[in-house]
Amino acid sequence: SSGKKNRRLLLHSDSPRMSSTAGAGEHSSSSRPGKEREEGADDSNRKVDDEGDLSLELYGAEAGWVEARTSCPHLPAMPAASADELARVPAPDSQCSRCHHPSENWLCLICKDVLCSRFINKHMLYHYQETGHCIALSFSDLSVWCFACDSYLDAQSILELRPVYEVAHLLKFGERPPFRSLEVLDLSSGQNGGSSSSS
């Protein structure tokens, strides 16, 4: 043993923390929580485990948690999920249609063009700026981003996203995704549809 205490963070150093300028599932320059967060953390979140290792427990937004939206006003821009439309979803290893980069690519859910992330050559961001096509699916982790809302969208709970998410999951992993069960929603109020009896 070297005598130094190992530091373990219960935080993935690449966890996205969005700012108003970050988009398509990417970090803003101030959103990388790794080293800066560890050094700046107060002692209330620090714990020492049985082996004497120091760990920093972060929760919620402090841990890079991003709350995905469960609705989006831009979904009507997506074409209906017909069999023909879903057949247009390309393989997740598709290259960027502009620069042919092989990774970090996103699928435009409006026109089905495949373009690279802002970590590569920013072609998906430029596509949104040029066309207004604001909803994209990451082939890296199958997350869905709305540029106009500047937010992730929950493909598990937004019914309009489920078909394309399922096809992308099948193409990437060879099996259907393990969807969470949906609670019945009262679509008129947007709240959970529990039955409350009034006498």
Automatic annotation (TrEMBL):
Domain of life per record: Eukaryota
Residue span(s) of domain UBP-type: 70-174
Record field: compositional bias (Basic residues): 1-10
Keywords: Metal-binding, Zinc, Zinc-finger
Coiled coil: none
Feature: compositional bias, Basic and acidic residues: 33-49
Annotated segments matching region Disordered: 1-52
Record's compositionally biased regions (Polar residues): 16-32
PROSITE patterns the record matches: ZF_UBP
Presence of keyword Endoplasmic reticulum: no
Keyword Zinc: yes
Protein name, as recorded: UBP-type domain-containing protein
